[in-house]
Structures are given as C-alpha cells and as structure tokens.
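Supplementary Methods, section 5.1.

A reviewer requested that the exact input to the structure prediction be made available. We therefore reproduce it here, unchanged from the version used in the analyses.
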Amino acid sequence: MLFFIIRHTKQIVRRYSIILCQQRADGRYLYSTIDPVTKKRKFLYSWKLEKNDKLPEGKKPDLSLREKEKLLERDLANGVSLSGGDMTVLELVEKYISQKINVRPTTSAGYKTVVNLLKRDALGKVKIKQVNTMDAKSWIIKLQSVDGKSYSSIHTVRGVVRPAFQMAYEADLIHKNPFDFDLHNFLINDSVKREALTGKQEKDFLQFVKQDEHFSECYDGMYLLLHTGLRIGEFCGLTLKDIDMQKKTINVDHQLQYVGNKGKYIEKTKTDAGTRVLPMSEEVYEVMKRVLANRKKPKIEICIDGYTGFLFLDKRGMPMMPYQWEKRFQRSVEKYNKIYRVQLPKITPHVCRHTFCTNMAKRGISVEILKYLMGHTDISVTLNVYTHLKLEDAEKEIKRLENVEKELKRCAR
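The structure derived from this sequence is encoded token-by-token as follows.
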C-alpha cells in the first residue's frame, strides 16, 4: 500500500517546485525532487523515515530519509548541484584533464599514468560526493604503504587529483576539496636529497672518467654539464648553431626530449627564463673547442622538428638523449666505487646542475646573476641553494673576511 506525504518547504517550493516523499511497496521510503541544474529528477531512498526508527531486520545501516532530506536541502541552499557529485573520481579526473590544453608531452604522459592508476584502483569508481578527507588521506597512505609507490610518484598523482576536486568544488558539485592537505604530514618522504658534489668529489670523478678507457669519451660532456649548469634536455638539444666561439657564448632556447609514444622531439625551454645566452669560461671554451674538433660528421645529419647539427652524437650518429647520459653517469660511478674505498655518491645530470649552482654561490656571485645563469623563473629556487651551504663554507667566508680586514689595517698604517 502506498501513501504520499506532500511536504512544502518555503525556499524549496519557490525555487524547485514540490518535493515528493512516499513509501514504496517494498517498505523503503522514497524522496524525490528536481535538480535545478540538469532538470532531472533526483531520488533518495532509506529503510527508515526518522532517525530513531527501527531498521528492518537484515538491512544495511543507513541514514534515515529525514537526515538525507536535510543534507539535500543544504545542498540546494548552497547552490550545490544534486547530480554533479554522482560522477566518479575517474570521470572527474578525465574531465579535468580534457580541459587542459597546450600541455607538454611529458605532462600529458603524467596525466595518462594517473588515469591508468584510477582505472585499476577502487577509488576511481567512487562518486566524488562520497569522498571525504579521511578517505582521501587513507588512499594516499595506501599508495605508499600497500602499493609501494614513492613519495615523488604520489606527489605527482595528488598534483592531478587535488586540482580536479578543486574544479568540482568551484563548480558547486561538492562541499569541500578532500585532497586539500599537506602530504608530508602523512607520508614518509623517501625522496633522495640531491647534494652538490664537494670539490674533491668532482675532481676525483672527472679525473677517473678522463683516464678510464671506456668512459673517457664522455669526459667533455660531463665536464660541460658540471661547469655550465645546463638542464640535461637543454644540453642534449645543443646544436652547432648554438655555439658562438667568437663571442664565447652558448645559446639556450630549446630542449631535446623523449616520450615513449612520441619519440624524440624538440620543445621550448622549461620556462621563459630558461631562454638565455651563457658566457663560456676559459676552461669551458677550451673543452668546447675540443668537442667541436672531435665531432664526427655523420653520413646524414638527423633532423628533429627542424633542428639539426646536434653537438653530441652516439655511435649511430643519433643525438644523445637524456636517458643515455643518465646511464653513463650511473655506470661510471658504479665502476669508480668498485675500485676505490672512498665511495662517490649518486651522480646525475641534475646533480651536476646543482653542483654548478652551489659552486657559483660559494664564489660569491650575485643571486640575480645566478638566477639568470640557471634559467630560474622564481628567485626563491636560486636562494634555496644558498641555504644548503655547509659550516665549512661559512668558516671559509669568515676567514676570508678576516684576511681582508687584516689587509685593510696593514694598508692604513
């Protein structure tokens, strides 16, 4: 037997017409209204009408219809869409990504990784309105403790999911962004801290590479990476036209990159500040002279997106890619550490860049000039290098100032 309860709420009747509450033949209570955005009917169900009503035997605990009704009224009052929250987390992320245009291929590959993760994970099928902050934190913790993902990988995933939920929040589909929290409060940061090489480590490494029969061919490239501060993509993208030996400058305005589904391609520098002209020191100039003299002209100069005459080529005459330099650094350090008792730390092209930046800071170069040389957009990134200088650097600087003061006093006599 069906009975109907017509309930008129002043605000809701005026804006959204009549809301209908009824008990179905199976005993469940039904509550329905019209979504003002989609104009579609919205249904709520519960086995209990009031909060304190007894739950029928064997039925799953749930909010009463009156409680669900209050939540729905709150949504209507706040202008939250009644049906938008029904989209799943996967659907939301895909919608967010679809609105991103002119993204770099590497960024696009990162988006694809997150989508594939959500397709496999149970969270991807959950409706966004059902995800609360506790759920979000539990999922993030699970990615590390159960799935074994690294802190940096989770940071990347959250970097897509959080703005997607923020988009839903700003569109009034949900009440708050459940992913709006700091990761470091819940995860172990297992990222390896990048340390600049000490002067001795740099000297020992380069000397080893120079004298090794297998790695000596990499010496010039490794030296340049340690003494120019170039990003590895910028370094691999250098062409003969970018080197002006008369002016002793290196032109930097593009990068050579590789993505699995796209292959080799040229893209602009990471930031506008990344486009720059670098002066060569005398040492860099001499090494660059040797690089140009030793470069073997291939039978066919490979052309990538209109760029040709790449400076560093592999044995096949193809431009050397970032991952190839990564491997060369890795293998040379491994060989060094098998021979010598005092071990070298992990050395990568980015460690070379960090080492160059740190060395320039130690020499007292101005922050603005260093920011330009590094191609940093934000000066805080450059300043961060100064905060990593060690006690021995401070001691040397104090000693230098003491010597300057002594010299001034001597001259004043």
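The CA atoms of residues 86 and 164 lie 15 Å apart. These observations are discussed further in the main text.
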